[in-house]
Amino acid sequence: MTTTHIDPPTDDGALSAGRERKLPTGSDRAYGYTLWTVLTLVGVIVFYFIYVLVKNSIPGWQFAGWKMFTTTTWSFGDNKFGVLPLVMGTAFTTFFALLMAVPIGVGAALAIVYLIPRRLQLAVSSLIELLAVVPSIVYGVWGALVMASWLGNSGEPWLKRVAHGAWPFDGATAGYGMTLGAIVLAVMIMPIVTAISRDVIVAVPKELTEGALSLGATRGQVIRKVILPSCKTGIVGAVTLATGRALGETIALATVLGGVTQMSPLPDRAFATGSTLAAEIAIDFGAITGKAGNVLFALALILMVIVGAVTYLARSIIRRNERQFQ
Amino acid sequence: MSSQERREFIRTTSAKSYRRRALSSRVFTALLVIALLIAFVPLASILQNVVGHGIRYITWHFLTTSQQLPSITNTNGIGGIGNALAGTAVVDLIAVLISIPTAIVLAMAMFEIKGRWVVAVRTAMETFIGLPSIVFGVFTYVSLVVTTHQYHAYFGSLALCFIMIPVMTINALAALQSVPDTLIEAGLSLGLRPSRVMLHIILPAARARVFTGVFLAFSRAVGETAPILFVIGASTLPGFNPSGQATTLPTLMWSYLIGAYPSQREACWGIALVLMVTVLFFNVLSRIFVARTQRS
Q1: CA nearest A187 in B: which residue?
Q2: Which helix H or strand E contains B163, and what residues bound it?
Q3: pLDDT computed for residue B277 by the predictor
Q4: DSSP state of A80
């Protein structure tokens, strides 16, 4: 079992008998009313949630104006609300985290299912899934107190030397910055990818793999040409969940990114410092006053739209793939 | 080409092809093993640091006394985490007391009622699971702190409900839907009212899976920082008053991480160890329930 995956409830088939009952019926009125009350209440809270966020961001949009999308400096204290560095920071950390976490996560899942002895499988996968339950603040502490100094002292200078100081591995190496953020995120989302991929890989019908093996395919060929294609939808789902997590991660990143600098605000190098949308909300919340505070709600709204769009996109990819299989 | 030659040709080419494929297979599996090994590196590093640095903080004094601000003359005087433990208990307990019944009744409603409204609420719950948790912190701050001009521990509980209820509801709904139709029909055929069928047949049958979701959601909520950071204020006194301000383990860790003294940053490891043991405890509980459902 995974720690992060939630089975989507299915509509079809099951419980048609239970679902066609009418509610409330006669003496069962109280039961029906209770269900309707809670359902309505939750629905109303959901609408109120959206209403509050939108309403409170409006003064923020007005206060920050179009400069929000045309200027490139974010400095909350000086009322400079260029959102571009934050969006770029969010995109970069998430993208490079996925670049690291997806191959390693899926590879580890394949190795767990097909390469290690059956008796060790449960132990190894639970150990990796242990990472999935570590609170994000612990990742933040690990990133800021352990990885930052390691990267600053050895990791980044080494990268710089190997690349001969060419872009993007040029400039000052501080330890804090985009590279550290991407690594911390990668460590956070890797167990999600592994856990869900493992579940999907285990569920591949034995007939498929055995059929391929009997035709003379090697183990590598079976994995690449039979298992991975048939798991595609599930792995895309895992990556979607991981992307959502990475885009919205706040606390783990708030102390490892170093902040947006006035001199070169855009994160245009691997070692550049910067910030993300979510992290910046947490960082600036302490200094929230008047209309500047509403700008943070606008940030929250932008973040929600990005996460929503990515999730929607991934869902449509999954749906298209499912149709292809049928 | 005679049949002899043809057979020889096939044998050599297939052997050649096999050697090439076997080699690439071996390279590929080696890559997978390397991926598995790399996956363990961060785990090892985190565990080594949390346990290695944190274990010496696990003393009666650290766990029971309240936090204390270090001073120039006493830079190591950070006190303990007693207040944060009490705050965590209050905030999380209230959150659980609200979210468990709400989530279960909500799942029951989604199970029994059909229509657009149900689909809308369910989609909203599924979306909420994926939303960044800081959004809920921002929402709770605007709707409660700004309107009342006060910080309360139970505001944090309400924020955590936004994290827990969606996870619990979707899990509970899946659990209810996994109960076999035959059981439900048997109850209905005996003339039981829908509420009796739900309370005496469906819920007991789905209990283990429902609780899996509960513990899963709780183990996630315990470690959450972002949603509660802005709404519970801070309290350096150990107290269980839900309408007072509170400090929880994650928020204390946050303030220590950005704190001015090295001793505070070092103490983060101690808090991290306590937090991880707590989270792990509830995660293992959820796994036990999973194992029990799979057996039955």
Answers
A1: B42
A2: helix B153-177
A3: 92
A4: E
Integer CA distances (angstroms), A269 to A71, A160, A169, A172, in order: 19, 11, 6, 10
Q: Which residues of chain B have pLDDT under 70?
A: 293-296
Within a 13 Å sphere around the CA of B271, how many CA atoms are in the beta-carbon half? 37
Cβ-Cβ contacts under 8 Å, B144 against chain A? none
* Residue A53 to residue B135, Cβ atoms within 8 A: yes
Sole residue written with tokens 């057979």: B7
What residues of chain A lie within 8 A of the CB of B115, using their CB?
Answer: none
Instruction: For chain B, give every domain's residue range.
Output: 3-54, 83-295
Class of CATH domain B83-295: mainly alpha
Which chain B residues touch A315 with a CB distance below 8 Å? none
Read off the DSSP letter of residue A9: P
Say if residues A193 and A183 touch (Cβ distance below 8 Å): no
Which pair of structure tokens corresponds to residue A202? 């285990």
- Is the sign of the CA dihedral A258, A259, A260, A261 positive or negative? negative
* pLDDT tens figures, B27-52: 999 999 999 999 999 999 999 999 99
Chain A nearest CA to B23, separation (Å): 9
Do B202 and B34 form a contact (C-beta atoms < 8 A)? no
Single-letter code of the amino acid located at A198: R
Q: Which two tokens stand for residue B170?
A: 């979707």
Residues paired with B79 in a beta bridge: B67
Does the pLDDT of residue A316 top 60, yes or no? Answer: yes
Q: Which two tokens stand for residue A226?
A: 């039979």
DSSP B246-290: ---HHHHHHHHHTSS-HHHHHHHHHHHHHHHHHHHHHHHHHHHHH
Partners of residue B184 in chain A, C-beta under 8 Å: 15, 17-18
Reduced 3-state DSSP string for A48-78: HHHHHHHHHHHHHHHHHCCHHHHCCCEEHHH
Nearest to A137 by CA among B151, B228, B44, B69: B228
- Rounded Cα distance, A297 and A95, in Å: 24
How confident is the model at residue B162, as a pLDDT?
95
Residue of B nearest to A220 (CA): B25
Other CB atoms within 10 A of residue B18 CB: 13
Contact state of B257 with A141 under an 8 Å Cβ cutoff? yes
CATH architecture entry for A31-325: Orthogonal Bundle (1.10)
Other C-beta atoms within 10 Å of B230: how many?
24
pLDDT at B295 (0 to 100): 66
3-state SS assignment for residue A216: coil
Q: Look at residue A6 and tell me whether its pLDDT is greater than 60.
A: no
Put simply, the answer to whether B105 touches A35 (Cβ < 8 Å) is: yes
Annotate A133-146 with b (16+ C-beta within 10 A) or e (fewer).
bbbbbbbbbbbbbb
